[in-house]
């Protein structure tokens, strides 16, 4: 293969995906590239001698009438052969187009074997590492390549050719050390894609080139130089209190909205008065983010810093990418901002460099390595979520993520987590998430930052429904066994390797010492399991209730000193094992030059299990930390999934009352402001404060209740089908939902959001929808199935007819589509599953306090979630939309009626069946209400 080869980019439309089952080509298109230029195009419509299915007709836009007038494939076979002759075959998903075309040509008596075949999907995955999707239509949108007729072969072939040329240029302009590193993994690419990459690398490296100033090269790994945070220069600025003065600053960039102006003034007062605690209930769509950023910017002008904690990574990105640039335009000055999350979200450069040379034996892992190598030349943060992968849980990722404790290494100076931490200390605005803030309140990161604003604050209440720590006995025992087995079975290989070095540093005595530690830890675990089962679970849970998962919540008085002592001893055992393993792994790093593949494989396996063991030991430390400062409102849960299996025991700590956290917040920050769209319940903050553990009544001047500045009666239609099913004790409810959703979406093209309580139910609906003709007409996105949350959001935003299936947490605070969202379907009232052990434990806590858990927590929490879901639809005075509720409890129960009253929506229409509502939706959308 040569760089000046003739390339033919091919796309096919077919009657189906299986040639052996009788499927045939109905359209062949090819674009010829020679000398980096498109020189010719071919497009043949082909009669398949069979009727097109409605699915294929809708997908391609081709009709039976069009194809009936065309020749059969044999008529074009020799012409197609001539086009392809002597050329490199290129396709987007080459392993579909090439075999299918070869089969058709073979049936016509032509044996076609291209000299090489290249896949643009894999090239794009490597060279566009942050792309939200690698579907052709998504890539063309991402790169602003005009794509007139998606799923028509001539249009697809043309844009694939343009994509191919673009990717070639991307490859040629990569730094030469990066190219040389990529070369190690090209053998894993499909067909001759790897050969093509090698050819391009050879071409690019013919002439030495200087590394750009913004990049740095260490041992062949090229990445961006750290950016120094530049704080805004302190200045004397006076906050504009009046609307007139704000209007002058806004200068028609945004409209002055009365409720937003009211919020701005409130935030400014609370910060300047150093009010310890303040609450703001701000309805969705009223511009609350700018409502707090604008007044905070005047505080930043004094050389101060603020912390903003929100609920999701998506909201953090929205603050950086959308809200902050708007603020800077209004204020005509720049502010520095840093996002910081848990360390495991970031790439550890040293760890990644070490695993680069290891052969995992998985083609996909090599592809991810290549993708990260290219990504490092682009990322400033090192946050792995930028890659938009669906799964970060593989052994490979366990090895390359940061644990936040690196103290040295080849790349230590440039460690992403370390850099993030340093930037966070300096930034004007520090953005984090609720969980990281609450789990790390004692860190120095928050020092000297006097103002904390907690956005989406209703979600902070959910921290009590998450385990603060979770020690899983089965996971711990498996890791100990695997490490012990590796060291024993490979003892000769390990000892011989170290004996060959000048250190002679790993001996039989070291193995014996570790073995003794393993035995001690195993015995301790066995004792703990017996103790927890015999002295707690058996004594307090009757035999009749041991058939399902057992959950026991223990108070400090119920926990015996012997148990706490055993847990502390186990922690010491695990720390001793980790210390010896750390020594072994460090010795290997010093002596690994020219090591054999066998020892590399052993060390790789040890590293994986080391990470698992370290994580479980860390969880145990957190359990003990909770026990050492035991609070009456914190519980230790003993859980056992299977009474016949001791290894199914696990321990978790749960914080029932967050008053301790509120106290810490007030000690740490002069002003803490809670903001959310659903803090109120029954037109009061009382329930929010009760759940948060705030016992003192807030002065009226320290809370603010904002109203919508538009009339929902003119903008919203709400339907409750008269034939809606009751979800309780209904095993067919999931299937009912799937069919109902399909009915509502058939023959509509509007952007739709379908909200679910359960990911399992979501998956059932997704599988059903993709089997219908709806999937031929529209893109169906599903949380946890079709990509990362960031990728799904981008694709949903770009596609005006997309359907998104999401859990209730997905859309919190997100303006998903700037008014384009027209249909919201709520599949079920968003109550927590009563079988959830954490919910059961929290309910028991409320009963012990003398409260009804349904009235205090379950119902208010469901109302807050429902408000969030409804808030996704109408976010401005110009928006219009339709809500369909598929849960009859909203009308058939008193608590359902109360929930709907809390939403302050127009009265719902419950006179129509689902099929009639579908017709009504179509009519409303056509007439714009």
UniProtKB/TrEMBL annotation:
InterPro entries: ATP-dep_Helicase_C, DEAD/DEAH_box_helicase_dom, DinG, DnaQ, Helic_SF1/SF2_ATP-bd_DinG/Rad3, Helicase_ATP-bd, P-loop_NTPase, Ribonucl_H. ATP binds at residues 282-289. Transmembrane segments: none annotated. It comes from the Bacteria. Gene3D superfamilies: P-loop containing nucleotide triphosphate hydrolases, Ribonuclease H-like superfamily/Ribonuclease H. One of its GO terms (cellular component) is cytosol. It is an enzyme of class 3 (hydrolase). SMART domains: DEXDc, EXOIII, HELICc2. Residues 246-502, 269-475 form the Helicase ATP-binding domain. Keywords: ATP-binding, DNA replication, DNA-directed DNA polymerase, Exonuclease, Hydrolase, Nuclease, Nucleotide-binding, Nucleotidyltransferase, Transferase. It holds the Pfam family DEAD. One of its GO terms (molecular function) is helicase activity. Its EC number is 3.1.-.-. GO terms for biological process: DNA replication proofreading. 3'-5' exonuclease. Belongs to the helicase family. DinG subfamily. Type 2 sub-subfamily. HAMAP family: DinG_exonucl (MF_02206). This is 3'-5' exonuclease DinG. The gene is dinG.
